[in-house]
Structure formats: structure tokens, C-alpha cells
Amino acid sequence: MLNRKECILVNEISTLRRHAEAKFSAKYRKWAKEHLFESMLPGDIKARKENAAQQSINAHLTERKLAQRVVSYTDRLFKQAAIEWLVSTDQPIQALEHPKFKEMIDIVARTTNGVKIPGRKATRAEIIRTFKTHLTGLRSKLNVSKFYDIALST
Description:
By secondary structure, the protein is an all-alpha fold. Helix content is 64%, strand content 0%.
């Protein structure tokens, strides 16, 4: 017979991996690196999980791009921008005196990180939503549905 030590064979992967890590981890890691294989030793798996947890936090952080240089406010600069807006969009001169324009400027003046101007689709959707809300409110105030029921029954 062969002179071998008696050994117990175990078919559980986790036990085999712990054994491999304890007895010949350096050889295993060298082999894994040479064959572009991801190490399955318990310590290596734990280290990857810790690194992955850190990476998932970093994935949520986004680097802010430098915005265009924000020019400090001056009355002269605002006047120039307002006149350019009037001319380029073919607005009447009275648009600058409109209360809603003044309200919009007051709101924008409170921002600290600039203004995000909605696109056409978002603006259209908001106008339609606002219209429907006002129409529903008007219907409830005028009791239109009850009026139609009465008119149809006579």
C-alpha cells in the first residue's frame, strides 16, 4: 500500500476553500492570477465585498461640472439682458412691466445654484396639467354636471 496520511474527503465547497486558504493560498492566488481567474478564497471574497460596498457608495456621488462663470449682478447688466430678451423674442416693451414677469425675476433672484429652465415638453405638460386643474375647479364651483343633469331631464 501507499504511505499516505489518512485524509477525510469533504464535498462542501466552503470547507474546501477554507482549507485551500489555510494550506496553499499563495499557490492558489498565483494560479488564479495567471489564468485570469477570480479568487474564491473566503478572505478574498470578503475583501471584494468590502470594496464593492465602498464602490457602490462612490457610484452615487457625481462630480459636478463647472458651470459657466456666473457673472455678478449689476443693474446695467440686467437692463442689457432684458432688452436683448425683448428684442430677440419679439416681446412688447410692456412685458418688462408685467407683474408675472416681475414675480419670476424675484423668484430667480433667490437662487444660489443657477436656474434650470424647463424644456418645451415639460412646459407644455405643466400648462395642460394646470389648465385641467383650473377646469376641474371651475366645474365644481359652477356645479356644471348637476346643471347638465337638470337641463337634460326637462
